[in-house]
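call fold(seq) -> tokens
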Amino acid sequence: MKSETIFSYLVNEGFQFAESKLLGNTTTLYVYQKNGIYPNSGNPQCVFLEVEQKHGEDVSVRFSMNVPVELRDAVYDIMKREEHEPENCSGVTI
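ret:
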């Protein structure tokens, strides 16, 4: 799933899960932070992911201004790649 791939990527880049909140019946907000998790540790880099499960999985992402452009681009690439891969296809050719 797209969100799990993004979560794994963020953890590999040093982000830590901060919290999640239910925003409706089918939408959950996940917050990941890097730096600033502990008091007096500076400005945190934050990534906010809204995951909507009603019709498959729709993910929208927002970044704090201090998140590097390279990381943003990598997350957008994951989102694009996951959108274009067919579901339930295990490499079988017909």
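Residues 2 and 83 are 8 Å apart (CA to CA).
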